[in-house]
Design brief:
This protein has 71 residues and is an all-beta fold. It is built from no helices and 5 strands.
Length: 71
């Protein structure tokens, strides 16, 4: 999954926002959605806000962090 870094204030995690386009089942109108994912990384200072990153699902690291950054 590809997303944009929204926050890098945590020491070993990032907040990544993923945007997607869905179609309404009845009216066939397209609309945009977004979802935030918390992703684990070794050093969050390497990433800056607005950077595009790839994430994959992994085993849970903590309560919210269930994704991992791919370089």
């Amino acid at each position: 999954m590809t997303g944009i870094v929204t926050s890098n204030k945590m020491t070993k995690a990032l907040v990544v926002t993923v945007y997607s386009v869905k179609v309404h089942p009845k009216y066939q109108k397209r609309f945009k959605t977004k979802k935030k994912y918390y992703a684990a990384c070794e050093d969050s200072t390497k990433f800056y806000i607005g950077q595009t990153v790839q994430i994959i699902e992994t085993s849970p690291v903590s309560k919210l962090i269930k994704w991992k950054i791919i370089d």
